[in-house]
Fold MARVEL domain-containing protein.
Amino acid sequence: SMKPDIKITLTFLSLIKPKGIMRQVEIVLCVVAFGIVGHGGPTFHSYWNWCMFTWFFCALMTLVIVIIEMLGLHLLLRLCMNWDDFTTGMAMLSSLMVFSASIIYPVFYACKSCILAIVATAVSFLCFVVYTVLAKHSGGGGYLSTVPGFLKVLEAFVACIIFISLTGYFGKLGMEWCVVVYAVCFPITVVIIVLNVLPILKLLPFPFDKVMAGFHVLAVLLYLSAAILWPYYSLSDCQNCVWDNLLVVTVMTYVNLTLDIVDLIYSMFRVFNMA
């Protein structure tokens, strides 16, 4: 059988294509937002760290994608993964992350007279728009382009918002249980995303769809317990707590519970259709 002839050559054609141009714009905007906010000095607050990490991470991952496609290495990567699905997923995730930074930063750190903060916010919002347009027009046609794939990306993103907002849970058994719930569900969600992007599902010695359905049932039950326990223990009898953070965790817990329920419904439909 004939093997595909893949040559790795440096080409700048990918840079002048619409996706290449958008990625370059995203890198510049992320770097500008990172530089402006970093110039104001660190606050070492979890939300400030999240915003800085978001702009750095998104710029870095976008740069890596640009370099890989410029070198033509994506042709090799297509042999072991769905490259288009991966880039679509990264655009979706970056869009969500930058959007969160565009909301969190001005709410906590901007003011009417803070010109640089206003500029950084505007730049971040523009970056969010570009990432959203790229994600919409990428259409990898793989798992991350489907509703279950998008739900998984959303669940992972919401879990990140929960993690950066966690506070005041030490010594409170109910809240500590909730932290365990978040810590257990998040890595499994990431593993599911990775397994679906890599072409190895057919190699697994068990029906992965049924395993996913089982995980979704477990995730719904775990998040249901967290949705009951977290607000009960955190919003009652808490005089010296950071209410903003506790409320964010409460809301995001209910958001992820809703996403898990929808994910479970999709998963059950898939299992029953395969039966």
The chain has a mean pLDDT of 87. The radius of gyration is 21 Å.
